[in-house]
Write a structure and sequence with these properties.
A hairpin with a 5-residue loop joins strand 2 and strand 3. The chain folds into 2 domains: 5-113, Roll (CBS-domain), CATH 3.10.580.10; 118-347, Spore Coat Polysaccharide Biosynthesis Protein SpsA, Chain A (Alpha-Beta Complex), CATH 3.90.550.10. Helices cover 25% and strands 30% of the residues. It has helices at residues 15-25, 45-53, 79-89, 110-113, 152-162, 176-183, 232-241, 305-314, 334-347; strands spanning 8-9, 29-33, 39-44, 73-74, 93-97, 103-108, 118-126, 146-147, 150-151, 165-172, 192-197, 219-223, 226-228, 246-256, 260-265, 268-274, 277-289, 319-323, 328-330. The strands form 6 sheets. The chain has a 7-stranded mixed β-sheet with strand order 11-10-7-12-17-14-18, with helices on both faces. A 3-stranded mixed β-sheet has the order 1-2-3. The chain is of the alpha/beta class and 350 residues long.
């Protein structure tokens, strides 16, 4: 059970203020309290992500995205009853209210679930040549480059382990012996690791078809050269709760046009916008796939993940996006590598 004074917020608050409350409370939720001090709604990190996808900004109010009919439990409910309500509604926090509707505490169910390891597989792609990082990768595979005093891939594994995921399959190719010698079967890190050897380049999805044992539940797929603090449990929960077959993490990316953009109406100039920034969502290289996605893979053929998602869309399967607002870095060139080392300590504690 947790005190709630740090996670209360007004219905008139902005998304920016809500994020500050959610981050400060570290509970993935804010409690929306009316002027009388009573609970009027809840707002989660996932609600905010969906708001961003619909076009909202940090300065927009939360009124259109918070839940006005939150699931609650009574202050007189037993611990077992509170857990039963939470699990039946697939939620991990429940406001506990008294007879007048005032919040007395927040029941956090997540720590009970975390007592057991999550059984979901994590598939890490570590077979690339790292050509854009030459000469750093002349003698070492890119996921084994040291950032913050340890290989990138080791930090990736620690991040998943921190969230309760301990079963890993790693696809390997270029200088694969270095990866296998460093990690072995994973026991040194307290996880289980098996390896998928790519005898030929299989793209970013083709190696999934080389697994001897196919997952029977949703599983992660992630590039082995990405550093991120994204909430992996929230990502998996988002995928499952929304009935998704394939979920892709996306990242907002701004591209500045280096010139003044001229807006025309036929031949007439109607406006000139100096060096505008175009905003896009880009593929962040982190995915959750359900087992049915594996049936779309062409046997023994190379395939990129973007094409696999296109095939899922063509089949009418549910494909969702999950915006990342946390730290994320794809180490693709020497400048990225240098910045990753500079920013590592301020973002990771592993």
């Amino acid at each position: 059970m947790y005190e709630v004074k740090e996670i209360k917020i007004s219905p008139l608050a902005t998304i920016r203020e809500a994020l500050q409350v959610i981050d400060r409370g570290a509970m993935k939720i804010a409690l929306v309290i009316d002027t009388d001090g009573r609970l009027t709604g809840t707002l989660t990190d996932g609600d905010i992500r969906r708001g961003f996808l619909s076009g909202l900004t940090l300065d927009d109010p939360i009124e259109s995205i918070y839940h006005r009919d939150p699931v609650t439990a009574s202050a007189s409910d037993s611990r077992e009853k509170i857990i039963e309500i939470a699990l039946s509604r697939r939620i991990y926090q429940i406001p506990i209210v008294d007879e007048q509707g005032f919040v007395v505490r927040l029941a956090e169910i997540d720590h009970l679930i975390r007592k057991e390891k999550h059984p979901n597989l994590v598939f890490l792609m570590a077979g690339g040549l790292g050509q854009r990082l030459r000469p750093l990768t002349n003698d070492i595979p890119k996921p084994m480059l040291s950032v913050g005093g340890r290989p990138i891939l080791e930090t990736v594994i620690y991040q998943f382990k921190k969230h309760g995921y301990s079963r890993f399959a790693i696809s390997i190719n270029y200088k694969s012996d270095q990866i296998k010698e460093h990690f072995g079967d994973g026991s040194r890190l307290g996880v289980e690791i098996c390896y998928i050897s790519e005898n030929q380049r299989m793209g970013t999805a083709g190696a999934l078809g080389l697994m001897e044992s196919q997952p029977d539940r949703p599983f992660f797929v992630m590039n082995g050269d990405i550093l991120t603090t994204v909430d992996l449990e929230s990502l998996m929960d988002y995928h499952i709760r929304n009935g998704s077959s394939a979920t892709m993490c996306i990242r907002e990316f701004g591209l500045e046009v280096p010139y003044g953009v001229v807006r025309l109406n036929k031949e007439s100039i109607v406006a000139i916008e100096e060096k505008p920034v175009q905003q896009f969502y880009v593929n962040a290289g982190i995915y959750v796939l359900s087992p049915e996605m594996l049936r779309l893979l062409p046997a023994g053929e190379a395939l990129d993940m973007t094409r696999l998602f296109e095939m899922a869309v063509e089949k009418g399967l549910t494909t969702l996006s999950f915006p990342i607002r946390e730290f994320w870095m794809d180490i693709g060139n020497p400048a990225d590598y240098e910045r990753a080392n500079l920013e590592f300590k301020s973002n990771f504690n592993v």
